[in-house]
Specification:
Largest sheet: 8 strands, antiparallel, barrel
Helix content: 40-55%
Mean pLDDT: 79
Number of strands: 13
Number of helices: 20
Strand order of the largest sheet: 1-2-3-4-5-6-7-8
Low-confidence stretches: 20-25, 91-105, 449-466, 468-489, 640-647
Radius of gyration: 37 Å
Distance between the termini: 63 Å
């Protein structure tokens, strides 16, 4: 007890003296880093255009980026704006010089660029390109060895644009991939956005590159330099003062995409130039559009941020051209056809996805409840596969966690995502788990104590009632589930304990799968794609356990066709959304072949269940490798005339025997073996059922009776389960 108290006191002392979680050495290191940030801020304040001063990672005798890179971006931007201006010139008669400078002519762009764009990039070759690489530092070469690939840029405007300059701070997440989709670069950039012109300049910041402090010097004109410097100085000053007050290094420009501090390993630094495409041509060919495009875009952006239900044209796509330059790795790449959407339409799509998922989950709940009502007796629930229900419940539980996590991080879609999460929670943890527990309890209690030796087969002679044995050659020993609890494998207390453990294993498996999926997201694309396709095939194999149980027990009609078809369609809807809908929110490329393979796999399972329902659970399966079960649809052999009279009333052709079904009080016609017209075939025998006690009934009559009682309606002899 004294040791525990001493340990608690020690922990409290550590928390009291080091509330920020930093030890003395780390605190001293943070003070030095904050002092360096203050120094860099003073250098920026005292600098002039073209003379950045002594900033980390910049050349002292040449501008950054070098002149050829700056001229390259000027040419790309001029060509881009001219291509959009030419169709407007013919209609408006504006001068080219005015259109090429959107800040004067008023070419319309998105003022708030919060959103994401995606496209392809291509490497640009520059001879004798100077670099700021240090000779004693080794930088990663995975990007320099590539010539083309895919690029994704996410933009977030962090402040409101100033009315005078139209300038706003932005934060960007840049992801550069190779042709196969592998993540090569994944960095965070800070920059400025000229909202009137749609031009943005951003840079990375690290211990080896003072990007945020040198950002005004990356501008192409002195006016832009003065505007960006006036914007950044108060913002950086506020952050540095906060760090000096707390003595904690928490600069926002030194954090990665995941919010964690940047790695101290040498990395390529990046300067990004972005130009949003004007949207004027998108509205020019709209019939009846006479209002100024600027006014229309202002109304559209206001409606996206503050919806009122106004009737406005749909928001145009967010398009951009990007040039990325790495000063220390000497790489320049250009992506001129990036296309995406603003964050508001993305949130709208995500909300629609959440509501759609909630509707699909609610439909599955309704189908599952109807199946549970149908499987409400010992006979019916014993046919259901425990592992089929388990697979469905685990997948539904995973969807519950997924939608809940998305709801936490996407506050704009909170209610739709919570609705979907709640529906999947009800489907998995309430109804699915209830069905799972009922199935487990019935099947566990009906398990035999030990495999008993089969009783000796009855003699192969006709019984005294005159009805001969079925013509299945060898007499069969029925497998009968005892109707009483005296032959149960375990007691009720043991079953309840196992059910409690079942709940624990179920939720532990869900959490383990969730963490494994998060870890697998960091795998290389090749292995990640293999895992995704393999998992999709596994989770869509939920009818395999039911098919196996039907074969082993010789039963059929365990599940309603409404449940089989409805569940299959609902669970394939998500696969179709990801791989068939080009505008899915996951930015996943369409893959119709994957949908075809998965849908075909589920369809084969449904066909197998249909074949088992029509032709029997062991159709085309060798019986010598399976447990022996009783065949209710066995053929009746042709016997002599005396026995035939006792078997039932013969028909005119002598190939049928008529019996009285005591369930419906109607006549049932039974074909005898060897009928020339084939009436004793597999399908012909599905209309009647013969019990082990040699009583004949209609198939639908006895099946309906056995749903509630596993006893013969005539003699009360225990019957084998279907």
């Amino acid at each position: 007890m004294e040791q525990n108290r001493a340990l608690v006191i020690l922990i409290l002392l550590i928390i009291f003296f080091f509330p920020d979680g930093q030890g003395p050495d780390r605190s001293k290191e943070a003070i030095n880093e904050i002092a360096h940030e203050r120094y860099s801020l003073d250098v920026l304040r005292n600098s002039t255009f073209g003379h950045p001063g002594n900033l980390t990672g910049l050349l002292t005798d040449a501008p950054t980026p070098p002149g050829q890179v700056r001229e390259k971006w000027r040419g790309i931007r001029a060509k881009l704006l001219k291509s959009f201006a030419e169709p407007l010139l013919a209609k408006r008669g504006a001068e080219v010089e005015e259109v090429l400078r959107p800040r004067k002519s008023g070419a319309t762009v998105y003022r708030n660029a919060t959103g994401s764009v995606l496209g392809r990039w291509k490497k640009q070759e520059f001879p004798d390109l100077p670099t700021t690489a240090q000779s004693n530092v080794t930088y990663p070469s995975n990007l320099t060895a590539l010539d083309a690939g895919k690029l994704m840029l996410s933009i977030e405007d962090t402040t409101e644009a100033a009315k005078e300059s139209g300038l706003v701070e932005v934060k960007m997440a840049l992801r550069i991939r190779d042709e196969d989709g592998g993540s090569v670069v994944d960095v965070m950039l800070n920059g400025v956005h000229f909202s009137e012109t749609g031009e943005m300049v951003a840079a990375t910041t690290s211990e080896r590159f003072a990007g945020i402090f040198a950002l005004p010097h990356f501008m192409l004109h002195e006016k832009e330099y003065n505007q960006s410097k006036a914007l950044l100085l108060p913002s950086i000053e506020k952050v540095v003062e906060k760090m000096e007050a707390t003595r904690y290094m928490d600069a926002p420009w030194l954090t990665g995409i995941d919010g964690m501090p940047l790695s101290e390993e040498p990395q390529c630094e990046y300067i990004a130039y972005i130009q949003l495409h004007p949207v004027d041509p998108l509205f020019e060919h709209r019939p009846g559009m006479h209002t100024d495009t600027k006014i229309i875009m202002q109304e559209i952006e206001r409606e996206m941020r503050f919806p009122t239900g106004s009737s406005l044209p749909p928001p145009p796509p967010l398009e951009a051209t990007v040039m990325v330059y790495s000063p220390n790795c000497g790489v320049v790449l250009v992506a001129d056809e990036l296309e995406g959407q603003k964050v508001e339409p993305f949130y709208s799509q995500a909300s629609h996805l959440g509501l759609g998922a909630a509707a699909v989950a609610a439909l599955q709940i309704w189908i599952l409840i109807r199946q549970m009502n149908d499987s409400n007796t010992l006979s019916t629930i014993s046919r259901v596969s425990f592992w089929t229900i388990t697979m469905m419940a685990v997948v539904d539980g995973y969807f519950f966690f997924t939608f809940m996590i998305v709801a936490i991080f996407l506050r704009a879609c909170f209610l739709p995502m919570v609705a979907a999460s709640f529906c999947y929670l009800m489907l998995s943890a309430v109804f699915g788990m209830r069905f799972l527990v009922s199935t487990y309890k019935v099947q566990r209690q009906s398990a035999p104590l030990a495999p008993a030796a089969p009783p000796p087969p009855p003699p192969a002679t006709a019984p005294s009632d005159g009805l001969p044995l079925p013509a299945t050659a060898v007499p069969q020993t029925p497998v009968i589930i005892p109707p009483t609890a005296t032959a149960t494998a375990v007691t009720d207390d043991e079953v309840n304990a196992e059910i409690s453990a079942l709940h624990t294993r179920f939720y532990f498996a869900l959490i383990a799968i969730l963490f494994f999926s998060l870890h697998a997201a960091t795998w290389p694309p090749f292995y990640r794609d293999i895992l995704v396709h393999l998992v999709l095939l596994i989770i869509n194999s939920y009818w395999i356990p039911q098919i196996y149980r039907n074969i082993m027990r010789g039963c059929r009609k365990a599940l309603r066709w409404e449940f089989v078809l409805g569940t299959s369609i609902c669970r394939l809807a998500g696969v179709g959304y990801i791989y068939l809908y080009p505008g899915n929110i996951f930015h996943s490329a369409t893959n119709p072949m994957a949908v075809f393979i998965i849908a075909s796999w589920v369809g084969l399972q449904i066909i197998a269940l249909l074949v088992q329902d029509i032709f029997g659970p062991r159709f085309l399966i060798p019986s010598h490798s399976l447990p022996q079960v009783y065949d209710y649809h066995c053929p009746l052999p042709a016997t002599d005339e005396e026995a035939a009279q006792e078997m039932g009333t013969p028909t005119d052709d002598g190939r049928m025997r008529s019996f009285d079904c005591v369930v419906c009080m109607q006549t049932v016609d039974v074909p005898v073996a060897g009928a020339a017209d084939g009436r004793d075939g597999l399908l012909g025998r599905r209309g009647y059922m013969v019990t082990p006690c040699r009583h004949v009934f209609h198939s639908h009559c006895l099946e309906g009776w056995m749903r509630f009682r596993l006893q013969c309606p005539i003699c009360r002899t225990p019957l084998p389960a279907l």
